[in-house]
TrEMBL record:
Keywords: Membrane, Transmembrane, Transmembrane helix. It comes from Spirosoma aureum. This is Phage holin family protein. The lineage of its organism: Bacteria, Pseudomonadati, Bacteroidota, Cytophagia, Cytophagales. Pfam families: Phage_holin_4_2. InterPro entries: Phage_holin_4_2. It comes from the Bacteria.
Amino acid sequence: MNLILHLLLDAAVIFGLAYLMPQVDVKNFGTALLIAVLLGLLNFFIGWIIRFPLNLVTFFLLTGIIRIIVTAILLKLIDSFLDSFTIVGFWPALVIALAVAVAGMLIDRSAPTEERVQSGYEALMIR
């Protein structure tokens, strides 16, 4: 369930920023959803290969910043694959990557953890 929520929110962020930023063009929400799925798959399969050497160079002190930069690079890679998605320049890709990271952080913070569910805290919050 959390994965579906992440994908939908990432697609909404990408689609919303495409509406606000003239350098980004997304044809429709379905394309934004495809971009979110591709971004998740590329981050899973290729992202760690790019992040690991960069984290070694920085002694793992800049892990969050490197994750955002790698996500922006992957967005530019997706831009080269899809005709219905265009990003002009690296800075708009970096802004989208930052927004996706912030949205993901907000989802992860609001999701109930196993400890909270077992303690009954979530049950009290629902009532």
